[in-house]
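>> received
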Amino acid sequence: MGARQSIDMLSVLADKTKGNLTPAEQRMIDSALFELRMAFLEITQALARSAAAKSPNPAAPGKPSIVR
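>> returned
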């Protein structure tokens, strides 16, 4: 939750300062946002895979589980 909020706040900062940054500053903020978003995505996907592996009898993706 905190990571997502930090990314959102940095994104708002980037939007608010658009046009007022030097090219180097703009590259730095764009790069930081990209790296943070990719790291957040990797961690989120790893957590989802871990949760799916721990759940009993997970249904195959795209196939409904059989309920009796």
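>> The mean pLDDT is 87.
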